[in-house]
From TrEMBL:
The keyword Kinase does not apply. Coiled coil: none annotated. Gene3D superfamilies: YVTN repeat-like/Quinoprotein amine dehydrogenase (2.130.10.10). This is Protein phosphatase PP2A regulatory subunit B. Pfam families: WD40 (PF00400). GO terms for molecular function: protein phosphatase regulator activity. Keywords: Repeat, WD repeat.
Amino acid sequence: MSEDHNWKFAQCFGDKGDSDDITEADIITTVEFDPTGDYLATGDKGGRVVLFERNESKKGCEYKFHTEFQSHEAEFDYLKSLEIEEKINKIKWCKRQNSAHFLLSTNDKTIKLWKVFEKSLRVVSESPVAPDAPQPALRVPKLTHRDTIVAAVPRKVYANAHAYHINSISTNSDGETYLSADDLRINLWNMDISDQSFNIVDIKPANMEELTEVITAAEFHPLQCNVFMYSSSKGSIKLSDMRQSALCDQHAKVFEEAEDPANRSFFSEIISSVSDVKFSQDGRYILSRDYLTLKIWDINMDNRPVQTIQIHDQLRNKLCDLYENDCIFDKFECNFSADGQSVLTGSYSNTFHIYDREGKTDIALEADKNAFKAKRLGSAKNKLSMARGGAKNGMLNDSMDFSKKILHASWHPHENSIAVAATNNLFIFTE
């Protein structure tokens, strides 16, 4: 564990009360910086989206509340007798073209395009006419500015295109299209057309009893608008070019590492399932996360990753217990830093790890209520050593708290600042 770094706790948003007060609806389920890094969005299990904006009056990377709106409501599918949760699975910001912000949010079934803008509230007031006017008693109504509010309105609703749960949305570099992925299909949308999409990947077998894998995540290439990738529960990543075929699942470059037969077990397929994939900003590398490892792939080399980082190696002999308490199915996200030289992923006991690309440093930080106590103790060094010590002890003493997990995080697109979701709290760490 590296000691020579300057990462420190900067901010925390959310309830500071006891964990007993937390309601299920308040749990944060997605975190996303916008392309400028000046805005930050979170979505929660209650279907709410909360936006934060950078506080320019303060030095460093500090944010303040911008607005909050209800994005999705709970629904009931009467045809399938199925409840559809309001939980926000993903949020993606669109490229900003004017003073308004546009962002996509999705639950399991429906994607919405939101417009967020500042709106002037005006009130009608009567102003008297000039005294020399023919009718001095006449009052002329006049609109006067009273206040400015931040409004959010749904511009498009993209519904009825997914039979299974949506796990990913990704905006394209062309600024006009985006993809949405569920367990078995990936659809391509034009932002302006809400009632039609193109199916670009379909892995559904003719007989569902022959189903062997599902799609777990999908993302567009950051620079090439015709290229995208998707990962599967079998541990593979496929890189596809939409120019090659209307359906891209048969025409793809497959990134897959051969498994050592000696390590084969009942849990092999579960722990090899890829929970998240991300491109580096230059599009050269792919970062993937499965249960126990982070892998970095060069898009020009598909037979093995250029680097494998062990995240939970100490849990290999506890897979049976983790299967019993369902933790083995936890889906951890991963992120590249802005310069592509570091990678980030979450763990248990509310800790997350930052690794450098050479694998020489493993910085473990804790996003927990203890940060508030540490802040009161004083210096950044104190609070960092406390955070690091807590994480370190939790790992070495084998006392991981599996009820506290960092699944969702986002790395600032231009700076070394990280937004981390820990239950119902949003933590900001900066270097």
